[in-house]
Amino acid sequence: MPAFAANLSMLFTEADFMDRFRLAREAGFTGVEYLFPYEWPEEDLKRELESHGLTQVLFNLPPGNWAAGERGIACLPDRVEEFEAGVDHAIRYARSLGCRQVNCLAGIRPNTLDESVAWQTLVDNVGHAAVRFEDEGMTLCLEAINSRVDIPGFFLDTSARVMQLIETVDADNVKLQYDLYHMQIMEGDLIRSVECLLPWIGHVQFADNPGRHEPGTGEINFRNVFAALDRLGYGGWVGAEYRPRGSTTESLDWFRNGA
Ligand SMILES: O=C(O)[C@H](O)C(=O)CO
Ligand SMILES: [Mg+2]
């Protein structure tokens, strides 16, 4: 089985955020990821990671005004300064937490923004972040997110689009974040896609579809998909990024018994 990380923004939400690290460790996870670390002091997060022997696997760059519905600012030309400041902020957290990968959310393109301007802004911002991350020995991930259900208008909504960006930026430390849930909605053909894209995949996440719940609640054959990741020699982390249908503990059969 691959190395699984618990996504603490979605799992163990029965408990306060700081208690979720311990719960993840007690459930058997050795890595954690979550949306953003920025509202907590670095020392507090570091203490939880260290005292429970957990690896901080991933978090996202600052996304703009999340509460107001923003989902990243990397494609927005009037937010470049904020994007660059966010890269610096993320690097400070990643250093303290020993986190080697940070995900960049491309954002939602407003209808009034020309597609080619959004694209060039994204290329320039990702290029800038790649250089800054390279100095730190870190990887920048780019996630394709479905625009059919979860984030209508999300600018990077297919693996092909992310691959086009990776080719354009042409930096070794820029990778595809392949979320099986989003890609099942947009593309399907998961195992063949993972096989083709493997050299560029920096991180994998999952949830079943429909519903974005745990394996076994929808249409994805996780036993076969996880076996394929092993067979193909995927050496990265796999983030459990689903909303448990009941309690988190009840949702973990796939982890205890194999998907
Ligand atoms: O929702 C997801 O799949 C993401 O991984 C994320 O971090 C923000 O939307
Ligand atoms: Mg995801």
TrEMBL record:
Every Xylose isomerase-like TIM barrel domain range: 21-257
Pfam name, any one: AP_endonuc_2
Keyword Isomerase: yes
InterPro entries, alphabetized: HPT_OtnI_isomerases, Hydroxypyruvate_isomerase, HyI-like, Sugar_Epim/Isomerase, Xyl_isomerase-like_sf, Xyl_isomerase-like_TIM-brl
Top-level taxon: Bacteria
UniProtKB keywords: Isomerase
Enzyme kind, highest EC tier: isomerase
Enzyme Commission designation: 5.3.1.22
GO MF annotation terms: hydroxypyruvate isomerase activity
Family membership: Belongs to the hyi family.
Name listed for the protein in its UniProt record: Hydroxypyruvate isomerase
Species per Swiss-Prot/TrEMBL record: Marinobacter iranensis
